[in-house]
Amino acid sequence: MLRAIEHKKGAVLILDQSRLPHSITDIKCTSWRQVSRCIKELKIRGAPAIGIAAAMGYALGAEEINAKDTGTLIEKLAPVFEGLFESRPTAVNLGWALQRMMEKARLLAGEGRTVRQIKDALWREAGLIHKEDIRINKAIGVWGSQFIKDGDVILTHCNAGALATGGYGTATAPIFLAHKQGKRIHVIVDETRPVLQGARLTALEMREAGIPMTLITDNSAGALLQQRRINLAIVGTDRTTRNGDVANKIGTYSVAVLCKENKVPFYVAAPLSSIDFSMRSGGLIPIEQRHENEVFFVRGRRIAPTGIRAANLAFDVTPARYVTAIITEVGAFRPNQLKKIASGKGAGLDAVRYVP
Length: 356
Hints:
With 356 residues, the protein is an alpha/beta fold. It folds into two domains: 5-137, Four Helix Bundle (Hemerythrin (Met), subunit A) (Up-down Bundle), CATH 1.20.120.420; 147-351, Rossmann fold (3-Layer(aba) Sandwich), CATH 3.40.50. The chain is built from eleven helices and 16 strands. The strands form four sheets. The protein has a seven-stranded mixed beta sheet. It has a four-stranded mixed beta sheet with strand order 11-8-9-14, with helices on one face. Strands 1-2-3 form a three-stranded antiparallel beta sheet, covered by helices on one side. Strand 5 (186-190), helix 7 (197-209) and strand 6 (213-216) form a beta-alpha-beta unit. The relative contact order is 0.12.
């Protein structure tokens, strides 16, 4: 299974996903600014993976600081936090991971630890975030695979696999586990314009796992749903608000509406770290606007005439009413039941009773 990121010998190695599937190349980051640039330029993408990268970037930033005392270290870490935080605005995991790293540094400074001890602890904390993500992904797979039946055809949009996470994936975790359980499944992969994360990344992951799949253009999903050739859809999320609204890759809203129209369940795989309980609804989520060249060009070749403009929204928001269930590492929930998670009263499998 391909891995998106790792810490090795004082550097952060990031798999350059912009080159996939044609080339497997690591970018060796020795400064936090390099990590930030990789996040901005989609060398690494996917909410959980971005969070891990930010955590490792923060630890790398600490290493770059020449401080004789902890007060100076904490002070000089502030611009590292801000620089990484501004890399991409929509995915909540980035801010969540940075906040955790910052609090760890301040806690240790308050305990009287040395500069070196704090730097070492930050690397350990980043590694812990990475390991936790893999464990969370596998738990999502356990909860989510219950909704996949033998013979099902599953629609995906964008990439929420190992490449978008610490490993194993969120939306792909139930698919991988269902396949491992011996269920005969088939995955329909949306190409996901304009950056083609489905065509380049999800298709690659399915092929490497030996899972039968078919790649389609994004505007084919509606026809297949109308023809009853898809049994369910599973997507990831970059930020889910406490009312169950979901921000995910542009085009997700269209898929959700089409699923609702054709009475096909639409599931969202959402690790708790991607649920923003501080945000009331999806209308408040900042939506990243990316450069229009991503629309004009495909793999370096211009496909549109010059002298025109393009809109390039990176994400859209799917209202909770279109979501059948949100699958987390502590159980599967209807959107209006997310408050059970916030209150620590997760009901697990009992929270969702879907009847086809």
